[in-house]
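thread from #wetlab-drylab

HS: before we spend reagent money on co-crystallization trials with cytidine-5'-monophosphate, can we at least see a predicted complex? here's what I'd submit
DV: go for it
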Amino acid sequence: MIIAIDGPAGTGKSTVAKGVAKKLGFTYFDTGAMYRSAAWWLNNQGIDLEDADLVVREIPKFAYEIKTEADGGKKYFAGGVDVSHAIRTPEISTLASKIATYPDVRKALVKIQRAYAQSVDAVCEGRDMGTVVFPQAEVKIYLMASPETRAERRYRELLMKFPDASDTFSYEQVLNDVRQRDHQDMTRSVSPLKQAPDAVLIDTSDLTATQVIEKIAAIAQSKKKRTAMRCSYGFVLALARLYLKLFFRLKIYGVRHFRPGSAIIAANHASYLDPPVVSVSCPEEVHFLAKESLFKAPLFGWLIRYLNSHPVSRETADASTFKLIIGLLKSGHKVILFPEGGRTKDGSLQPIERGLPFLMMKAKCRIQPVYVKGTWDAWPPGKNLPKLFGKITCVFGSPIEWEDFEYFDKRDAEQRIMDRMGESLRALKQWLEDGANGDPP
Ligand code: C5P
């Protein structure tokens, strides 16, 4: 995993990146130190850093090495010389920012940066980590803080690092440098400093370093968990599909009615088998809700846990359940719902309840109707386990669009949506009974 941390000078990037790396056991990579080392090395050779052609000609000779000490600290070597301390002066800050505007310098250094972070878990800090160097980074963070706060931090840092030279810099000077460097970093033509669209913005002005570290570590951990869940989802879905195909000869019709984006996958309800059957039949990842008690069932509980299921308790249902569903739909997911409210007692279709139109209008999403046949026989009510064999069919009908009801008054729209849903289920059932010819309605 790569955690890319970008942001202007003085936002606490280095402290935070080091802290996150330590907390998660990742490698820490300070790319600013690389620009600084290159600037120090060029300057030490008497090269005029304003002379872009000369700098670009010399940069391929830049030999850079990072050594990790026993306590985890880093030492930076430019042309074999330990420059760890020397690169932290205000003068080198300005020179590093200067050479960082040359496209060929960036090209050369980015190559080394990518090679360095290859196949390791790393926290990489800089200005273009999330936008240019590691656009595929799993976690992207953009740190910011006011120029005054950042100058104050930098000034205190310089006093600590160079106590003997405290009369050579002032707070005002540091603030000026910070502003100038911001301007140069943000307005350069190649890889300017900016927030990647998928980066999480953290304002560090009123946060301690520990608080920022905790925040980023939590983001990384939840990302890791979600990635693991996604792999498990694919695996369990494939297993469930195989089981339903082999033992229940699962047949699926009307998949071409699927559209991208959020939708309520609304199915008739006959059995506990319905959610996994509809999940397996959908051509893309879907979510569903299940009674808390079902998660305790042997094997079945394990199966639904990995299929994007969300437990709901009978007592706290309604308000919190509606909130959960609307949240999922608004963030672009597809959610399986059973608008008849509960399971059928005799296998026949039941009336549609008001919850369906309410959710559709709140989330402004379409309904994807599905008729499921055979689950009532496969796992009838009152039985603890499904039968060993059976025949199950899943038929997707044409979507019902919320825009069709947008201009009706609320009550009227609700009734019309319920009527349309009921008609759709009856039509799909009829289509199947008539021999499943052509496309489902
Ligand atoms: O992060 P630090 O202040 O040590 O970086 C020094 C300078 O190096 C920055 O002002 C910036 O101009 C440049 N830099 C960059 N891209 C990076 C890291 C640093 O342009 N990834």
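DV: The mean pLDDT is 92.
HS: ok that's useful, forwarding to the group
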